[in-house]
Amino acid sequence: MKVVIIILVLIVIGFAAAIGVAVYRATTPPAPPSAHGPPTKSNGEIDDDALANWEPPPMAAVMGKLSRPFAPKLFKKAVNVSAEAGSEGTQPIPSADKGMRIARLRLITGRGAIVTYRCEESDDDDRQGETCPQVACLCPENTVLEEDDVKDCEEAWRNARASGDDKFVCREKDDDVSAVIYRDGGVIVVAPMGEQAAQVSIR
Fold this sequence. Notes:
Helices cover 23% and strands 30% of the residues. It has four helices and eleven strands. The strands form three sheets. A four-stranded antiparallel sheet has the order 1-11-3-9. A four-stranded antiparallel sheet has the order 2-10-4-5, with no helix packed on it. Strands 6-8-7 form a three-stranded antiparallel sheet.
């Protein structure tokens, strides 16, 4: 009897999970072409016309997202950097013996912020392939931004959030992103979007 009950419970759980997946797919809009791989047609083939305007996401952004759960954090405790409208806040990044660290950047207050990681310059051949400077644009989900607010954001970021009429709509988790920090450190610069002050947590 217990075996029958367990089987019935598993069937119910599987059925509920299937309904949940179906509802998620029905209510979640598809990601824009620039948010994933090259654009494809309904039959799965590459769409050559759409490919002309498609750009792959920056490699550093991809590495930051994939490495975030495993790579060493930048700081043991979060450091908050604030900046008033028209000014910048800075956070020096010391060098380390680790080849790569991940900085978690989270918007605490403000309509949005542009965070730039500037590396220390070096002629070391081992540093070939490093992406620097790196620009991360932070804003709460569904925030509508103007062209002037995001002019310094990466083109791929802008294309993925463009909504027409020179407006840009922030997506889920745009206020909590990662940046790849290299061995020699550098500096992280925080600049508010628009006329509001902003504060960003760095960890």
